[in-house]
Amino acid sequence: MQEIADIGIIHLIVGGFLMVIPIVGFLYFKLKIIKETLIAIIRMIVQLSLVALYLEYIFEWNNAIINSAWVIAMVLVGTFTTIKRTGLSYKHFVLPFFLSGLTSIFIVDTFFLGFIIQLDYVFDARYFIPISGMILGNALNHNIVGISNYFTRLRKEQELYFFLLVNTNSKKHSLLPYIQSAIKSGLNPLIATMSVLGLISLPGMMTGQILGGSSPVVAIKYQILIMIAIFVGSSFNLMVSIVMSNRFVFDSYGRFKPGIFAAKK
C-alpha cells in the first residue's frame, strides 16, 4: 500500500481560499452571516489543531476514565450548543438534553463496540472517541432541527394545543402531532442522506479508511454499521430529548412554565 499523501501547510492555506466563493455569494445576496461564518471557520481550525495535539496523548494513555471524561465533555458541548441554537433557556433544558445525549451514546457505543466490533477493551480511544464523536455530531444537527420545530410550533400554535388539551383531556395525545412533526423534520435529512450513499456521495469515514489503506470492502462494512449507529443514536437522542423536556417545561395543567425560552436580545 502507498503511504497517505501529506498536505503541506502552504497547500492547506491555499485550500482555505476556497472560502472566497461562498463569501462573495453572501455579499451578493446581502446575507449578514459573513462574520459568523469566519468565526466558525477560525474556531474549527483552532479546535482541530488542538485536537491533533492532545489526541496523540489520549491515544497513548488510552485510559478508560480519561476517554469517558472526553466523551462526557463532548455531550456537554452538544447540550449547550443545542440549547443556544434553538433559543431555549439553559435552566430548563441542560439536564434533559444532557441525560438524553449521555443515554443514547451509552446504549449505541455499548452495542456497537462491545457486541458488533467485539473489542476486548471497549474504551479503546481509537474506536471509542471517534465513533462517539460521529454519533454525537450527527445527533446534534438533527436535534437542533427537531427541537426547534417542536417548540417553535408549540409556541406559535398554543391555541390549537390548548384546544386539543381541553378536548382530549390528555397532554400526551395533544402533543403527539407536534412530536411527530419534530421527529420527521429532524430525521428527514438523515434519511435522505442514507438513501443516496454510494450513489451521490462517499461518506467521510469510508473515504478516510480507504485513504488510510483499508480494503474498500472493510471500509464499506464499517460505514454501513456507522450509519446505522448514527441513525439510531440521532433518532433515540431526539425522541428522548423531547420526552424528557416535556417533564421539565410543562406545569400540572399542561401549560408552558415561565422562562423556558431565552430572552431575545
Automatic annotation (TrEMBL):
Keywords: Membrane, Transmembrane, Transmembrane helix. InterPro entries: UPF0014_fam. It is a multi-pass membrane protein. It is found in: Membrane. Signal peptide: none annotated. One of its GO terms (cellular component) is plasma membrane. The keyword DNA damage does not apply. The chain crosses the membrane at residues 6-29, 41-59, 65-83, 95-117, 190-212, 224-245. Belongs to the UPF0014 family. This is Putative ABC transport system permease protein.
